[in-house]
Amino acid sequence: MGLFSGARSARRDDKDLGTGIWRRAHDRYGRGLDRFHQVLEGIEDDDLYNALVMIADHLASLQPRVREVCQEAQRMRPSADTDIPGSLAPVHRALSKAANDLAMAAQSAAMARLDGERWGYASAGLENVARRADVVTGGVVAAEAALKQARAAG
Predict the structure, then answer these.
(1) CA distance linking residue 50 with residue 18, whole number of Å
(2) Which range (6-15, 75-84, 88-97, 145-154) has the least confidence?
(3) Which among 23, 89, 118, 130 could disulfide-bond with 17, CB atoms 3.0 to 4.6 Å apart, if both were Cys?
(4) How many domains does the chain have?
């Protein structure tokens, strides 16, 4: 990404997500995803790498949904600061939990990587990563449901 394309992207994000809590929620999910992908760098065990890439791909496929929730929340209750609008507090809480769970999934992936490097293919560690990824998915689904409920409430 070049200097100017990065600036254009930042302006688009400011327009779509604002500069407040919805932008922060979106960016926090992205940082967790970046952290998960950093764990993948340098894994030598092909089986472990391939299994973690599948989980990483699944988590990355959720990012557009997180963005969509954040954009809609910004349209409904624009934010330029750290105040959480009461009517959308459940949306923010679900997004924050999903991002936190994503960071924990990255930590689980790092542990699986260490175990894999030390003992060979670490299936127990992978089960933990997959379980964490399922919790992330549940958080995104919860944010979507909370947004839908807030939209219906008016």
Answers:
(1) 36
(2) 6-15
(3) 23
(4) 1
How does DSSP classify residue 86? Answer: G
CA distances from 117 to 20, 49, 85, 102, 145 (A): 41, 11, 46, 22, 40
* Residue 79 to residues 21, 71, 85, 112, 145, Cα–Cα distance (Å): 6, 11, 8, 38, 20
Contact 20, 76 (CB under 8 A): no
- Confidence (pLDDT) at 24: 96
Rounded Cα–Cα distance for residues 31 and 69 (Å)? 17
- Matching residue, tokens 């699944």: 58
CATH number, position 148: 1.20.120
pLDDT in tens, 5-17: 555 666 777 788 9
Is residue 22 classed exposed, middle or buried when 0-12, 13-18 and 19+ CB atoms within 10 A define those classes? buried
Residues near 127 by beta carbon (within 8 Å), at least 6 away in sequence? none
The predicted pLDDT at position 94 comes to 98
**Dist CA 138 CA 98 (whole Å):** 8
- Burial class, 108, CB count within 10 angstroms (exposed 0-12 / middle 13-18 / buried 19+): buried
pTM equals 0.89
